[in-house]
Amino acid sequence: MEEDSSIIKKHKDGDPIAFEDLVLAYQDKIYNLCRYMLGNAHDAEDAAQDAFLKAYQALPKFRPEASLYTWLYRIATNTCIDYKRKPVFESLFGSSEEGGRLIHDRASEDPSPERLYQSKQIDRALQEGLGKLSPKLRAIIILKEIEELSYEEIADTLEISMGTVKSRIARAREELQKIMQKYREQNP
Amino acid sequence: MSCPKTKLISAYLDKELSPGEKTAFEAHVQGCASCSHTFEEMRLLRASFANVERHPAPYGFATRVMARTAELEKKKTSWLVPFFVRFAEVAVLLVVITMGILAGEVMTNSSPATTTTNVSSALSLDMFDATPPGSLGGAYLAMTEVRNEK
Fold this sequence. Notes:
Chain A is an all-alpha fold.
């Protein structure tokens, strides 16, 4: 992206506020990734800050022809996978005003209490599922389903082959589906 | 028993199959109960993510990140200052010593005769006489000797 190249050039030229522009451009994406990787707001902010700090230190060596945002995602994903504390999954869904509205929107076709309940059940099952996946499988599901990266972008982010992306996504979905199925059976 | 082609379901749902692979897979699913069942499960799973909440960064996040980068910069230069101070101290010391040696050489740099005389007189015991050379007593004696000769 031209804007990214411009920010990087300004930072390398010693512009003190150039890096802040980069943080503002990507803070929501990086924080959201960390939130779903680590499950709670406190650890997510801690990890997201660490990720940007690592990016700040590594930026002088960043190759301009590479993709900045997959590079940032890579740093953030690795920071979360190596995070010092075990993830504690708190209300990922419906915790904010936006989250509540999204649950309602999902049920809007049939806004019965039953539909709303089902919607919340899906979210609880998803949260349970994400929490029980291994960090590597959780990362690939989040990058695909939530951050909506393409297979090529995921391969670049995780530094794995396209073949590995395909097989890992398939395995992650299979495991997630099993965990969610078990959760629904235990919590009808 | 699961069909080996179920591993293509994910890529199919993500539109990552080539046109040829896609056509072949669609034809296969229609006749395969295992793939059909798994396909539906995967489709529902993907649909679960359709409206997930996106969490924006908390208020003031960028400011906190920039505060940490400023701290990092401060730590980078703080270890350099004592290094340069010590370096400067050593450099000044070397300059002073060198100047002292050079000054000493300049001050002791006299003619060979003078050097010899100075060495001789330094080695004799005349310095220990009651009227050593160069003293007032010695000068008086020299004057009286000259008068007696006259």
